[in-house]
Amino acid sequence: MRKRKQILAAALAGAMAFSLTACGKTNTAAGQTESIQQTESRGQAEPTEETADEANTASEENENGGTVVQTTAGLVQGTDEDGISRYLGIPYAQAEERFVPAAEVTAWEGIRIADSYGPISPQGAISGLGQAGNQDGTDNNSQNLNIWTPGVNDGEKRPVMVWLHGGGFSTGSANEEGYDGENLSRSGDVVVVSVNHRLNVFGYLDLSAYGEKYKDSANVGIRDIVDSLEWIQDNIEAFGGDPDNVTVFGQSGGGAKVLALMTSPYAEGLFHKGIVQSGATETMGVIFNSQEASTRLTEHILKRLDITEDNIEDIQTVPVEELETAAMEALQETGEELKLPAALGGGYSMDWEPVVDGDFLPTNPVTEDSFAEAGADIPLLIGSNLNEWSGFFETAPIEPTKELETALREAYPDKTELTAEQVDTTTIRLPLLKIMSHKADQKAAPVYAYVFTYGNSYHGAEIPYVFQRVSGSGEEQELAEQVSQAWINFARTGRPGAGKIPEWEPYTRESGATMLLDVEPELVYHHDQELLSILVPDYEY
Q: N or C: which end of the chain has fewer CB within 10 A?
């Protein structure tokens, strides 16, 4: 772990106000190179009289715009949007080769203009959800982050909320419009950070059997996130944040990444709370990929590429599209060979995930009788949406019975049109019940549970409420204020809750305390236990 560097010289405090005319909002690296007014040099940049003088001179010339901040690698200038400073595409590490841990960022001289998003990881596919995405604007060197903050260089220590995007461990980015942290930062006086990192074959191809160089290859995607958290420890005070109060939060695959961090001893001490939003299936989040499956997958991929131990370095130059195609075919083959249930939908398939290698991940998140030891002291807010993927995948019809109808109405009495087919069970709700129950069994840090039930609560429906990016009715606006404030309060104090939300009791196996997030939030106890036991009678958690 890098030691926290004391990077702020007194001469820099309050002296770095700069002006920009616009804030770039693209989701690629376009224009990033041109926006870096710098010359690069190796090593970390330490504040000097020259950098302080440069900041002072620039601030005199540009009094109304984005503020410059000193980081461990050099000066960065953001943009201001109605009182919120944003810094986009800041590198926190750099991947000089594929399949190896990223190195520290090359320091720069001058001022790096952080007004446009950085490159994202090459895009892969998730089983059951189609092909790999467009590769425009992608790069293996995708270790960059975005920051939204109400104040910089002001001595304040605001809660830091680090967003990890969805898309499994295969696709997506931090640059999506729905993840813009401006409103959340403003409403909660918090520093919001979103992180890009390596995905799919670039983040999780296990080449450890092919030489010392690749001993860490199986988990470099999550190691990137650990690198980002180390960067936050070293730099976030300059952006108005508190390095001793960092919450990682994510939805879907982003939630599974939170669980991976809670499982890894390499991330201990780098964050202090976790929020998991619809972030696990039975085979992605409850557990991760085994060493056996990971090794076999690599063998299938290399065979398709005609690569052996003798020419393993050829893997560095295989075109992205060819590599992704070989990976997608091998994932299907390996899943069928080892009878691995697909993370989504039916049948067998393997997905890209972290690998339980005994070192970076000593265990799965859920152990036989508890939860990963590294996450014992991390308070957890965890939940899912009522509908999730219901109706998206073909399933067997559910036979209506009087017992089922009674259990459905008792679980959700206000949802008079709700049918059993619309209730998520085995895809996400039950795996999350397993996770929260095992975490609570540790009897260490508390667990807070929720189900988001408002409207058509499909997979991801809660995201605009968390980020306060709802533009609908007054009812929706009010719900967004309640949900986002609950997340903010959890980040600030370790206890969720806000406004009209009742006192939020921790979840235990005995109480089953769960907050239903809706127009009228309600704390309930084992509210759907009977319903789930009817729909999935053999599931144990």
A: N
